[in-house]
Amino acid sequence: MSQSKQQVFRLNTGGRIDRSRTLSFTFNGQRYQGHPGDTLASALLANGVDIVNRSFKYSRPRGIVAAGAEEPNAIVQLGSSEAAQVPNVRATQQALYEGLAASSTNGWPNVQRDLMGLFGKLGGQFMPPGFYYKTFMAPASMWLTYEKYIRKAAGLGRSPMEADPDNYNHFNQHCDVLVVGAGAAGLAAALAAARSGARVMVADEQEEMGGSLLASRETLEDKLADQWVARVLDELAGCENVTLLPRTTANGYHDHNFVTLHERRTEHLSDTAPVENGHRQVRARLHRVRAGQVILSTGAHERPLVYAGNDVPGNMLAGAVSTYIRRYGVAPGRKLVLSTSNDYGYRAALDWKEAGCEVVAIVDAREAPASDWVDAARAQGIKIITGSAVIEAKGSNRVTAARVAKIDIVAFKVSGPVQELACDTIASSGGYSPVIHLASHTGARPTWRDDIIGFVPGLVKGVQACGGVNGTYALGDVLAEGVEAGIKAAAAMGHAVQTVTLPSAERLQQGPAVALFQVPHEKPTLRGPKQFVDLQNDVTAAGIELATREGFESIEHIKRYTAMGFGTDQGKLGNINGMAIAARCLKRSIPEVGTTVFRPNYTPVTFGAIVGRHCRDLFDPERYTALHQWHVERGAEFEDVGQWKRPWYYPQKRAGAVNGERESMAEAVARECLAVREKVGILDASTLGKIDIQGPDAREFLARIYTNKWEKLAVGKCRYGLMCKDDGMVTDDGVTSCLADNHFLMTTTTGGAAAILEWLELWHQTEWPELDVYFSSVTDHWATMTITGPEARKLLAEISDIDLDRDSFKFMDWRSGKVAGVPARVFRISFTGELTFEINVQANYAMHVWQTLFKHGEKYGLTPYGTETMHVLRAEKGFIIVGQETDGSVTPEDLGMQWCVGYDKPYSWIGKRALTRSDTKRENRKQLVGLRPKDPKVVLEEGAQIVLDPKHAIPMPMVGHVTSSYYSPILDSGFALAVVKGGHQKLGDTVYLPMADGQTHEAEIVSTIFYDPKGERQHV
Amino acid sequence: MSNAATFDTRTDTAIPVESPLAYSYRRSGAPQAGGPSRLQLRERAMLGHLILRGGAIVLDEAVRDVLGISLPGQPQALVQDASGERSIQWLSPDEWLVIVPGGEEFPLETKLREHLGSAHFAISDVSGGQTLVEISGEAARELLMKTVIYDVHPSHFPVGKGVTTVFGKATTIIRRPSEDRWELVIRRSFADYCYRWLLDAAAEYGVNVQQ
Amino acid sequence: MFYIYCPYCGEHREEEEFHPKGQAHIERPKEPEACSDEEWGNYLFFRDNPRGVHHEMWVHAVGCRKFFNVTRHTVSYEILETYKMGEQPSITADSQSQAREGAAVSQQEGVRA
Q1: Residue C27's closest chain A neighbor by CA?
Q2: Nearest-CA residue of chain B relative to A783?
Q3: Domain A922-1019 has CATH 2.40.50.140
Q4: Does domain A683-873 have CATH number 3.40.50.300?
Q5: Which candidate from C8, C14, C62 shows the least CB-CB separation from B75?
Q6: InterPro entries of this UniProt entry (chain C) (predicted)?
Q7: Range scoring the smallest mean pLDDT among A28-37, A91-100, A598-607
């Protein structure tokens, strides 16, 4: 094991870290130490780790640039075990814990000696924007090969190869006011809203709430601002109406103030969630928040200046330098050159100096900067070089010097001699870009403001922005805006706010900033050293310029061509600079070039948090019938029908099997089929949709919604009905029974139950409210057991008081009485073509009735059968299944079911008009027929295409396809149902089915009824 | 008398019944966290559940006369009789859920039908199709926040309210009959999913399941 | 994710409780047999797709099961009003364009990251 290294860049005092405790961690296999309160980034800086990654495209060494979510380089792979692997973690957002193990996501064999880098350097000149598109265009067959290479080269982390041991969940949250970002503005807003009594949620992505105030030089009420933060947090924590969520990122802002928050609950403690009282803690939680009002106080990201070599480790944001010194007690270097276009950057130099390090110079792009900040720097004896900028950083693995020169911003050129200042750190500040990402998610367009040199968010209903995100940066103004936003938001939700007294802030005189984005170099951009705009995606100023020269004028296209703002970065640091460069090249203003729109998520969210508990056995509801336990115990294989689990078939132990071998599906289905045809079978049909229809107009309603007639259906009778949409296409079918004159029980297909109930309500509520009728679902109330086969009557007679005589209880009748002592409605309908009784009892009694049937059924050979046997038996009879024989383009006549269409009904029922359109009357429509394979051993493939001439050149004209196909045990032959163009006129013709394996099957078009064509068996 | 068929699906004999959760108890058990559990779940099985449909004005008088409680006319309202054993919940402007002790539903339906005569209304017995699960304990609200999308904060969900809403990837009726007690009305076919979901969500608090 | 005021339940509910059912105010012809094929085809298949104010039918599927109408802006997705079946909207494209006269919204391109 390698020796732990000293924290050579750790300051002796200051910061919000606990120096009394030491944490050890590893980065790329090397052991280091840090302290509680550190982020992985601050600990790496404390240990002098310059290179944290290799860049995406050019494989250049990269160091830490920022201190927050905007970090483009320090993206690491986390996890000490395979199952704990997490890719794409920003080191700047990862709290340090004992034993943390991190590695670079890019760089092979390692970040210090990178072989890919050699390729990047050699290839650098030859990897312009669009490189991948251009190089890997053709041949298309090579793309898979290219992709592997590109993925390996790009290397943005990897997913774990073992199951995640952790738990994640979702919370459905509702609040009056959601405050996003708990910096100065957010805390002021939260305080105001909280005091109104409104339900307030505060989400902040950092380990501690307080934002920039935690590392601020500024004072509130003459004390450092972090003391005010502590007081406010104390008060908020004590409010019952306030929920504080630290380590929680608002990642997506969706319609109507629906915001998704990603709360990391244990990721600051260890790499998998700790176990407490035998229960593994929830690692991360997704809050699905519906907020009455949203307050965006997301602050601003500092914008780096774009200069040559600005990606060499040691180039940092000025504000980040301050944060590392003041919050984490780390000075990320020894000798600083600051390049700034504004006053804000000066804080870094002052903090640096106070930390006891050397400020070589402040290089200010302004000709004559004048403000309290400039005075403070001068008072510290810091050299200020005005009208100038750092035009290039020197060094390869770490900055060694800054090349500084006078610049002419308007003419975009270097206007004076270059001097080289030796240093190891260059901090830059080009001003601030408000963090408008969330507001952008709503689709609201941001607005450019010249005075703050940035975009401020466009706002939808019910949202307010305050503080930095609004372009307001002076602390006093930020607090005032926050309070105002809090009061307004609470008031909008009906909560009056007591006065909130603002703490007094220092009023520092600020000087105006100058708009500087890309710094000119002595050489033209296209020929000079690389100036990076988007560090994560390796997009350079030259790349953008080239894109504009190649004719890309829309910022949307430039973005896609160069990859600027792609991926997990979402343009946090680079977008505005990139737009400014495009604007310069196109000689337009920034707002003319376009506005920036960002997509969710703001920062990456783990799949675990997205999925929550909707995984494994809770992935989707499984619906069970009241007899499920029996099916499970009987060893049924199950088929998914919608969300229902239906017994598919019941494989038995093979006769004579020594090792418990069970029947194959084909064997089980053959046995079940013959049992029904020869003895008696039983099916759990409880999943069929059942709708209770009551009202004096129930019959009229049925006549309008079904294609067939209902006027004369008497009490005690059942009828099969076919339902179309108004386009004339079949959408559902089922048997409806007349329970009383004003009372019907409709059955629907299993999958169609909910949709058909909604369909009935649709017509009743929107078109025919004058009909007096009500519909209620009774699907779950009844359990339905179908006994079918020649012995069905004898079996039922043993346990029922109902008169089952064939002449008094006819086919398509229903009767009520008792079955196994339980009140039951029994329907004599048949989906098998055999003598059938469908027994309906209240579901709580189902198991008793089912078991009683078996007690009595053994001697009759009672055999449970599943959906597969049901399919075979119904197909032998030519009975359709909606959704199998139909696909939304099949009319009743296409199915040969004219007998089920009442053209002369008095009402123009749903579907009628469409059935007389020329297209629905066409003679060569695909029509349902039977297919008998010439070779009885062949079972055609469902979906197989049908042709008339197998010798026809490819592509052959296809005239239809197989909709259902099975082996029939009773016929000892394969058989199929199919739709064929003009099929009803083609009985006796031979058709062909060419298969993928080169075989061509031959089949004869026959009637759809393969068994008992006269239908005598169901009437016995 | 409306021209509808009535049918008493219940029988008095000692015939065994199985509640919608019978399978789930066998499969997932009924966890007992012991004394300090922050959550209690209890199924109130075999109650009588009726869906009542019709105009509020038509139904109100009959319901008051027969059941002794008035029909809640306000959306989302839940009313109970003094004993708390009988309740009526608004489901839609022309639909109510009546829950009564098991066995009372058929006599109630019969009396209501007599009372309503030839008016247009509908009564459907759904007793076999759903069950009622009670949730109580200090973690009840948090459990519900993980479970239903509806806002269960007391300011938004006072006692005497009931709504139909989304439960995980299924649906439920959620009611608040008293300060410390919630009720979920769960469809039979979804009952096992809902039960497993609740046990999973409840595990971190410790839960006692009363059968 | 929309937050929809159900005019029957009298409160806002989450979109997950609703199903969209397409354009509102499509009336089935009173005498379908009197329609030409073209008229019937228009009734069945042709729908508006406006940029701006649109009237839609929704159903509170996991809730009161009532159908109702929603006036929604198809650009901002703002729901301007909801109203019961059989009622007419108080906000229409016409009423909106009068109210917003002169307030032209510039539609610039954007970078979608």
Answers
A1: A767
A2: B128
A3: no
A4: no
A5: C8
A6: SoxD (IPR006279), SoxD_sf (IPR038561)
A7: A598-607
The pair phi, psi for residue A89, each rounded to 5°, is -90, 130
Q: Which residue shows structure tokens 């299993």?
A: A750
Does residue A969 sit in helix, strand or coil?
A: coil
Number of structural domains in chain C = 1
pLDDT bucket at A123, cuts 50 / 70 / 90:
very low
Sequence ranges of the domains in chain A: 23-154, 167-300+434-492, 304-430, 524-601, 683-873, 922-1019
Average pLDDT over residues A474-480: 95
- Is residue A162 packed enough to be buried (19+ CB in 10 Å), middle (13-18) or exposed (0-12)? exposed
Instruction: Categorize the per-residue pLDDT at A3 as very low, low, confident or very high, splitting at 50, 70 and 90.
Output: very low
CATH label, A167-300+434-492, candidates 3.50.50.60, 3.20.20.70, 3.30.70.20, 3.40.630.40:
3.50.50.60
Q: Is the pLDDT of residue A498 over 70?
A: yes
Same fold flag, A23-154 and A304-430: no
Contact A565 C111 (CB under 8 A): yes
Q: Tell me the CB-side half-sphere exposure of residue A1019, using CA atoms within 13 A.
A: 6
C17 at interface of B, judged by CB pairs closer than 8 A: yes
Say if residue B75's pLDDT is above 90. Answer: yes
The answer as to whether C69 is a domain residue is yes
- In terms of CATH, what superfamily is A304-430? FAD/NAD(P)-binding domain (3.50.50.60)
Over range A231-257, report the average pLDDT: 97
Interface size A-B, in CB pairs within 8 Å, comes to 171
Q: What is the least distance, in Å, from the CA of A599 to any CA of chain C? A: 6
Q: Per-residue confidence at A658, pLDDT binned at 50, 70, 90?
A: confident
A908 in contact with chain C, both atoms CB, cutoff 8 A: yes
Give the H or E element holding residue B89: strand B87-92
Residue whose token pair is 């005189």 = A509
Q: Which residues of C have a CB under 8 Å from any CB of A? A: 1-3, 14, 19, 21, 27-28, 31-33, 35, 37, 40-41, 43-45, 57, 59, 61, 65-67, 75-79, 85-86, 108-113
Q: DSSP characters for A150-164?
A: HHHHH------SS--
Summarize pLDDT for B20-34 with one digit per residue, the tens. Answer: 999 999 999 999 987
Q: Which two tokens stand for residue A860?
A: 């009759």
Q: What percent of chain A is modeled with pLDDT above 90?
A: 85
Taken in order of first residue, the domains within chain B and their CATH numbers are: 29-210 (3.30.1360.120)
C41/A575 Cβ within 8 A? no
CB-CB under 8 Å, C77 with A555: no
| Chain A neighbors of C31, CB-CB under 8 A | 908
Are A90 and A98 in contact by the 8 Å Cβ rule? The answer is: no
C85 touches B at CB < 8 Å: no
Question: For A187-223, what is each residue's pLDDT tens digit?
Answer: 999 999 999 999 999 999 999 999 999 999 889 988 8
CB of A1011 closer than 8 Å to CB of A968: yes
pLDDT band at A147 (very low <50, low <70, confident <90, very high): low
- Asked if A599 is an interface residue toward chain C (Cβ–Cβ < 8 A), one would say yes
Which of B95, B124, B163, B173 to substitute to test the interface with C, most C CBs within 10 Å? Answer: B163
Residue C54, in any domain of the structure: yes
Range with the poorest average pLDDT among A147-151, A729-733, A874-878: A147-151
CB contact under 8 A, A255 and C75: no
> Any idea which architecture A23-154 has in CATH?
Roll (3.10)
Residue carrying the six token digits 């969330």: A438
Residue A776 with chain B: CB contacts under 8 Å: 51, 53, 95, 122, 124, 126
- Let me know if residue C71 belongs to a domain: yes
Q: Please name the residues between 105 and 124 in chain B that touch chain A, using a CB distance below 8 Å.
A: 120-124
Q: Which residues of A287-302 are buried (b: 16+ CB within 10 A; e: fewer)?
A: bbbbbbbbbbbbbbbb
The answer, for A661 touching chain C at a CB cutoff of 8 Å, is: no
Q: How far apart are CA A185 and CA A296, in angstroms?
A: 9
CATH for C25: 3.30.2270.10
Given a cut of 50, whether residue A430 has pLDDT beyond it is yes
| C111 within some domain | no
Domain span including residue C11: 3-98
What share of chain A in percent tops pLDDT 70? 95
CATH 3.40.50.300 applies to domain A524-601: no
- The amino acid sitting at A755 is A
Those residues whose C-beta lies under 8 Å from the C-beta of residue C105, and which sit 6 or more positions away, are none
Do the Cβ atoms of A914 and C108 come within 8 Å? no
